[in-house]
Amino acid sequence: MERNEFIKSLGLGVAMVCTGACFSACGKKSDAPEPNQPNGGGVPSGTTASVDLSTQLLTVGASVTVNSILFIRTATGNTSTSFVATQAVCPHQGGALTFIQDSNYIQCGLHSSRYTTSGSVLAQPIGGGTTSALKVYPLTVSGNKLTATA
Fold first, then answer.
1. Which residues of 64-93 are buried (b: 16+ CB within 10 A; e: fewer)?
2. Which of 47, 43, 37, 38 is nearest to 110 (CA)?
3. How many Å from the N-terminal Cα to the C-terminal Cα in the chain?
4. Which residues lie below 8 Å from residue 86, measured CB to CB, with a gap of 6+?
5. Which of 29, 64, 85, 99 could hold 148 in an S-S bridge, CB 3.0 to 4.6 Å?
6. What would the DSSP string read from start to end of 51-119?
């Protein structure tokens, strides 16, 4: 093999390796934090979850998660208007949501997205990406049983 042929074949080999690496990177799923939750992180329609008010959510600011629904007591009394129920999974990338009582907002454990108790977005995820409003579920109270229906 002559020197010119060697250089041409070497150049062709390097070009093929670079092209393969480029195609591999282009086809790779992005690491960028973008919404990827089926159903927006909410629960399937028709799903119900219940809380026993004689043992749970006893004080204003208390919260509990049941069947991927986050229940929060927002006021005194055992009427449906004293509580809020939202999805318990962040619509951004599926992080667990918790109620931060001292600040009166819901926060994602993954990227610190923040939401009001009515589901509105207060802060987008840290590190990029966007999130959407939380699903808020209707509530009914029957005796000591609080039920949310998706």
1. bbbebbbbbbbeeeeeeebbbbbbbbbbbb
2. 37
3. 73
4. 69, 70, 72, 97, 106, 115, 117, 119, 134, 135, 136, 137
5. 85
6. EETTTS--STT-EEEETTEEEEE-SSSSSGGGEEEEESB-TTT-PBEEEETTTTEEEETTT--EE-TTS
pLDDT of the residue at 9 = 58
Distance, CA of 12 to CA of 122 (rounded, Å): 54
- At position 123, the amino acid (one-letter code) is A
* Contact (CB, 8 A) for 41 and 95: no
- Distance, in Å, from the CA atom of 53 to the CA atom of 35, rounded to the nearest integer, reads 34
pLDDT digits (tens, 9 = 90+) for 19-65: 444 444 444 333 344 444 545 667 888 889 999 999 999 999 999 99
A 10 A CB-CB count for 130 gives 13
pLDDT of 46 reads 87
Extract the tokens encoding 8: 């041409």
pLDDT tens for 108-125 read: 999 999 999 999 999 999
